[in-house]
Records
---
Amino acid sequence: MAFECVSRTHVGLKRKINEDSLMTRAERGLWAVADGMGGHEAGEVASGKIAEALSKLPIVYNLQETVDDAVAALQRVNRDLISLARGSGQMRTIGSTVVGLAISADEFRCFWAGDSRAYRIRAGRIAQVSRDHSLVQDLVSAGMLSEAEARVHPNANVVTRAVGVSDDLQVEIVSGDVRPDDIFLLASDGLTRVVEDWEIAGELTSNSPEHAADRMIDLVLERGAPDNVTLVIVRLA
């Protein structure tokens, strides 16, 4: 399976530090985006440790083994971040969301913790592969909020899972098939809070991955870029 891969990251217009990190290893069919938790100390340290740990995984040729190795690496980073936070002598959290994608042959697996997202665009139609681990998503799932209300909810940035936050890190995993010309997008919420899903689909289906990546960053900047923004595009040949 051949891939065309494009990635972008930008600090945005409101933040002083880019707390996002990304990891691309097309040679082993593995990609990830990590979003250091804003408002917490050393978010860039947390996301950087995630990207580094995933980038160092050995090459294996079994999709399940790849994902098992990735989740084990996230568990190690989780322990390291909790130890680092506790060792400071202060009550603080050093955390990050993460979303990852692994592809082999005709199958993908997506793994994540938090509200960084994965999408698949097939035949011009976009579908969110991941499900946000967030307070507002839980309220939407319970029928207590509409999708529109969730987007403007004052607690829209509250996540219920992240690396470095709890001793018991739960990483969710979903699987599916892949076909030629499928496009996958991994993104931090700096993109998805500002650009609508239908706009993302339009950019990815009407432009090359390079141009689409630039267009989406430009859209975020045009709309004030209140957060760091990071994206990884993977198009199957």
---
Amino acid sequence: MIACGVIILAAGASSRMGKPKLLLPWGDTSVLGHLIKQWQPPGAEQIAVVHGTGDKVIGSELDRLGFPAANRITNPQPGRGMFSSVQCAASWGEWNPALTHWVIVLGDQPHLRRETLRTLLDLATAHPEKICQPGRRARSRHPVVLPKAIFKRLKDSREETLKQFLQNNASAVTLREMDDPGLDFDMDTPADYEKALRLFARDLG
């Protein structure tokens, strides 16, 4: 069995959306609230949210959701991009020492099917030494599951992006092709949001 920590990246500027995308309504909660709930049933041992230092909007939403302050990671320079948040998470000293794997979760994929997440964790269980990703049309997608030995390398990585880091560790990557149309796009614009809501509603039946 593997023991997973989940990193929810919430430090983005949402410039193309025109408003904080993680606060948009989603079901009976917000996008952020849904992401937190979404990862609880698959068996995450610890969930942490990375947000920008001084980001009162995300902080207030986490307060409203009752998300523990002890599991919030601050990125002092979110303008440096997503990889800076990943490295902040990799450098964080409050992870449960029993964790064996970490899942990097984008803040703009609330529309992924629950079965996609379960299948990804099953893949990581079957290949515990590998970086595991969903595949879609022969291309690697997110979320990404990293075993401890590789996760530890992130904090001192010289790469500029997570994509570059993964490419430089391509021999350690295992993909599983998945039939989830939500893997085809991230929720960056208002049109993406409407499309994601339609997918979510359809999956709910």
---
Amino acid sequence: MPFFHQVEVLPADVDRLGHASNQVYLRWVLDAALAHSTALGLDEEAYLARGQAWVVRKHELTYLRPAFGGDRLRVETRVENMSAASSVRRTRIVRPSDGAVLLEAVTDWVYVEIARGKPARIPPDVRERFPIEP
């Protein structure tokens, strides 16, 4: 089952075309990933205390429908797979009021040792917190 994160389209999220900006969709994808990790007991401070972090290698975003000011949205995110030092996460943004899927995203994350700026093996205690949902 995916992790659910709720957002609302605020006036500052709306671009000159009258709908949520593409940049805001990306922010919601990133915010949902962090909220998921935090809910599993690993917030940003926990990773920094280890000297490690998740960084994005690649985003694939498919914008399907616009979101408008005041829309309440559900961001659904799940870890699809995990290798030695990376993970793929899938995310969907849905407008519950009409069931419309607004965005589908695939993000390739790499686990890094901050001091070296290089990939690191995902520690077992980190790996075991994230259920894999193909």
